[in-house]
Amino acid sequence: MPKLLVHICCAPCFIAPYQHLKDEYEIHGFWYNHNIHPWQEYRKRLDTLKQYVEAENIPLICKDEYNLDEFLRNSVFRENRRCEACYYERLRQTAAVAKKGNFDFFTSTLLYSKFQNHEQIKAIAASLAEEYDVAFLDHDLREYWKEGIELSKAAGMYRQQYCGCIYSERDRYYRQR
After folding, report:
1. Could you report the average pLDDT of every consecutive run of 10 residues in the chain (177 residues)?
2. Which of 12, 33, 91, 130 is the most exposed place for a label (fewest CB within 10 A)?
3. What is the C-alpha separation between 129 and 41, in angstroms, rounded?
4. How many CB atoms lie within 10 A of CB 18?
5. Burial class (CB in 10 A: 0-12, 13-18, 19+), 77
6. C-beta of residue 74 within 8 angstroms of C-beta of residue 35
């Protein structure tokens, strides 16, 4: 089976895609999410993912680095373009690990969320695939959206309420008056 490295933003976004791809690929997970704020949220998401992959016996590569300062430096005064920089950094790390680990493909659960900019993610991933000489699996994982919600709830997973960064937390909870 071809080896696929999946960048995972959180377990609830991974559960349904994993169920659908595991018969076609030897799947390894990859955790690198430098954007998640606050620290407690970062830990909850990582701990939930670790519990899931352990239960399913899925290999997981963790780049457990809480680089909030770096994320903020790259976002300040570019708040409207923060997602592009965030996608790039997470996918760059994924492509580098995929190349080093001799994976056939890499992809990301960012393609599962209906709230992410899929065209931007795919363009960034395609350029990184060329740069790192490792194929990008361009699969629209949104088709599993509803199923992923149901599966993650049934599994009792921690389900976050925003993408991860301080700006997405603000956008989720703070309403302009």
Report:
1. 98 98 98 94 97 98 91 86 93 98 98 96 98 98 97 97 86 74
2. 130
3. 30
4. 23
5. exposed
6. no
What is the rounded CA–CA span in Å between residue 157 and residue 11? 8
Q: Radius of gyration over alpha carbons of the chain, in Å?
A: 15
Q: Which amino acid is at 114?
A: K
Q: State the Cα–Cα distance between residues 139 and 125, nearest whole angstrom.
A: 12
d(Cα 112, Cα 13) in Å, to the nearest integer? 6
Instruction: Kindly provide the b/e burial profile for residues 112-139, where b requires at least 16 CB atoms within 10 angstroms of the residue's own CB.
Output: bbeebebeebbebbeebbeebebbbbeb
What are the two backbone dihedrals, phi and then psi, of residue 29, each rounded to the nearest 5 degrees?
-90, 155
Helices (H), 57-175: 68-75, 82-100, 118-132, 145-154, 166-173
The domain locations on the chain are: 3-173
- What is the spatial distance between Cα 142 and Cα 146, in angstroms, rounded to a whole number? 8
Give the CATH number of domain 3-173: 3.40.50.620
C-beta atoms surrounding 91 within 10 Å: 26
What distance in Å separates the CA atoms of residue 118 and residue 115, rounded to the nearest whole number? 9
Residues forming a β-bridge with 106: 5, 136
What pLDDT score was predicted for residue 170? 85
